Amino acid sequence: MSVTRTNPALTLGKYVALLAYLLFALFPLYWLVKIAITPDRLIFTEGTDLWPSTTTLDNFRTVIFQTDFMAFFGNSLYVSLGTAAVTTILAAGAGYAFSRFDFGGKKIIVAVMLITQMFPLLMIIAPIYKIVASLGMLNSLTSLIVVYTAFNIPFATFLMQSFFDAIPKDLEEAAMMDGCTRFQALRKVILPLTLPGLGATLGFVFTAAWSELLFALMLISDNESMTFPVGLLTFVSRFSVDWGQMMAAGSLALIPSCLFFIFIQRYLVQGLTSGAVKG
Amino acid sequence: MARMELKDLVKRYGAVEVLRDINLDIADGEFIVLVGPSGCGKSTLLRMIAGLEPITEGDFLIDGARMNDVSPRDRDIAMVFQSYALYPHMDVARNMGFSMEIRRDPVDEKKTRVAQAAETLGLTALTDRLPKALSGGQRQRVAMGRAIIRDPRAFLFDEPLSNLDAALRVEMRLEIARLHQRLGATMIYVTHDQVEALTLADRIVVLNGGDIQQVGSPLDLYERPANKFVAQFIGSPTMNVIPVTGGVEGVTLANGQWLGLPMRENTPFATELGIRPEHLDVVDPGPNVLTATADVVEHLGSDTNIYVNVDKVGPMMVRKHGNIPIATGDKLGLRVMTENAHLFAKGGAALPAPVRQAA
Q: How far is CA B288 from CA A18, B292, B317, in A?
């Protein structure tokens, strides 16, 4: 490894650019938290100040103890984890098959999966509603899991396939020469190496399901089965918007996503397969 | 114990035939090298023996038992891959012991065998390292260790040394030779490197375009190549092949010179003459010798390689032992050692070698 000398001005420029991006990306989050901790009476008077003159946790208290927020939260967690788990398991299986086997109709299946990704969701909302309604599954969280899974599987499958593709075939063959069945080779050799891929897919699907609004809004009207994004809308009443509580609820909604990514980030680290073959 | 029989093996991918009518008997304990240019089907053949590639037609037997439909795990063959294919998430010891782990062999026995193999291969200090913390040569050793650990009935090597640098390659080649002597197991080794083939093999199988060109001991192939392809593939530097016109007990070269090949009956059918660089003598220019100009001279110390341009015949190469005082541009005479000349008929088939005089 040689040490490359870099121009200090370039390094500085890089950090400035990163900083600018960070500010741009994180400012809305900052604003979310800032409004959440601003007392209601100051929201409009000090609306544009970067930091309120007094802070309060009242909004959080109200959201947690006096609204249905915790229920929404639980529903969302159930739906998102369910979707992430089901999608990842199915996508891993499909991705492995696409990566390792040649079978009749493979190209057609890939094409069909791609086609499903081409339509704007708005177009298919009505038919989906009809289907779910006639199955009597309106207002059920299971229907959301089914619908989300269906919509996330194509992308998740391609994602998983690319992770499987990155694992040399030699490894499985070596395992099979060493006495493994194909399934044992998959479980003992391929699966541990696919953890980053599984982590990435889980994370991707989890966040997609966590923040999904359109289907949840259409398929759920019952207060008890509302997911969190739909629940957020209840802070908008006919005559006013309760900004403080809405932002407090929004801040709380960030927590599971953050925790989830902290949990999976070690699996996202690249380079787990280095050293397998000549490198 | 592993005697292998390959009977009329054919491999097709769709309409493409990559291997045709492969017939080969491999004796127990024999070291067979499959050699040929890239794309000749040698790796495919090895993978068919391993069970990683289905056999389209024909039969493959080990010790008389048909193996066509037996899965790789049940063939009891170990394979060393070109890419090493070490399990990146397992340390060296577990990589080597993996086959025993899968077979649920006793843990103690596994530990002893791993320790032994590590000792043999000089890996003892590295057993708790991950593959990514190893050098190329060390990875190669681990891959070998993984193969020898469970005492399989045969070993397959798929170009195991091609990712190593030259010095390491020589060293590992020796180790593989020692391994074969020590274990006495049947080994099948794929390479495109003819030096590896010549040094390691009991018998070499030369493949080209999906056909076996010739099977024989290294010296057989060197001295009695079956055709022009084998003649030019085996031996380094490559055999010189020049066009000739056949005559009675001799051939006429392109420059009109007559080259007498007494005692040979098939000279009328010859269209090409093959002569190895080491079978050309450098003499003073004169009648009855080829007149040539030295084009490039390589002084290797032990040998001198002379690339010459023979008048009205074309470029040839001469190798002489020792240091020959010749410089670029020098005129020199070349004498063909006719007892070592090879003749090829139209299409490349070799005409039987010259009758040898009793030494």
A: 81, 13, 19
